[in-house]
Specification:
Layout: H1 4-7, H2 10-19, H3 24-33, E1 36-39, H4 42-49, E2 58-63, E3 69-73
Antiparallel strand pairs: 1-3, 2-3
Helix pairs in contact: 2-3
């Protein structure tokens, strides 16, 4: 597993944790467990999940203005 700090900036972590209604510690724990995924680009996300109207396998997702996507699995 990569170091979380190499994947996610603290500002991104705080912003997404508010969207997912979690605290930053919970976010880090879910990232470490693989229940929250981080995609560098929308293309990376689409390569894994495809372009669909709904994503039933995801509980929630968030796209930041820098292009990163965070997904929370069910």
């Amino acid at each position: 597993m990569k170091d979380i700090a190499d994947i996610v900036h603290i500002g991104e972590l705080i912003a997404v944790s508010q969207v997912f209604q979690l605290n930053p510690f919970q976010m880090i724990t879910l990232i470490e467990k693989g229940l929250v995924e981080v995609f560098e680009t929308k293309e990376d996300f689409l390569a894994k999940y495809g372009a669909k109207e709904t994503y039933d396998e995801l509980d929630d997702w968030c796209e930041l203005n820098n292009g990163k996507l965070f997904t929370k699995l069910k």
